[in-house]
Amino acid sequence: DLRARDGAGNPPLMLAAGSGATELLQRLLKAGVDVEETGSGGKTALAVAAENGKEDAVDALLDARANPNREFGYERMTPMMLAAKACKGGAVSKLRSAGGRVDARASDGRTPLLFAADCSDNSVVTDLLMHGNARPDLQDDQGRTALMRAAARGNQSTVEAILFWGKPKLDIRDHDGKTAVQLARDGKHEEVAKKLEAAGAR
C-alpha cells in the first residue's frame, strides 16, 4: 500500500528517503506518490533525505521537483537547515545548487549558516559562504552570529573558515552584551579566543 504509514506516521516515501533506498524511492515516485507528501512532524521526503545525508535520494527528489525551500513545523525549518544542523555538507551543497535559500530563517532566527556554525567540521560553513554568499552577520534570537556560535563551542576550524570566507564583523554583541572573543573565553576556548584577537576582535 503506497499510502500505508508506520507507527510514527511516516509513509513509504519517507522511509525510503531516510534510508537512502533510491531505487525504491524512484519506483514510488513513478507510481504516482506525491513528492511533497509529508510524514512525522510535517517533514517531506526531501527534508528527511537531507537530514540523513542521503545524497542520492536528495538528487532523485530534486529531479522529481521537490521544493528545496518548503518549511515545516512550528520551527519553520527547511531541508537545508536540517542538513546544516546535521553537518551534512554534501546535502547542503546539492540543495543550494537547486535553489535552496541560504539565508532563510527558522522561528528562532537561525539560518543554515547559523546551524552549521555548531559543527566542528567547517565544510558546511565554507560551502555556504564561498559558494552560497550567505550573510555572516545575521543573528539568531539570542543575538549571536555564526562566528559567535562557533566561538562559544570552541569550533576552531569553523571559526577560521568564517573569518576567512565570511569577513564578518568582529565587534557584534549578543543580547547579553558579549562578543565572540568573550564567548570563547567563557567556554575556556583559549586558542579560539587568540585566533579571534589575531584577526582584530576584542
Structural class: mainly alpha
Overall average residue pLDDT: 95
* Biggest pleated-sheet summary: none
Shape: elongated
C-alpha end-to-end distance: 61 Å
One letter per element, helices H and strands E, the order comes to HHHHHHHHHHHH
Query: In percent terms, what proportion of residues is strand?
Result: under 5%
Give the tally of β-strands. Answer: 0
Q: Which residues form runs of ≥5 with pLDDT under 50?
A: none
Our Rg estimate from Cα atoms comes to: 18 Å
Please tally the helical runs, counting DSSP H or I stretches of 4 or more residues: 12
Name the helicity range.
40-55%
Describe this structure in words.
The structure is a single chain. This protein is an all-alpha fold. The protein contains 12 helices and no strands. Helix 1 runs parallel beside helix 3, helix 3 runs parallel beside helix 5 (79-85) and helix 10 (156-166) runs parallel beside helix 12. It is elongated and about 60 Å long.
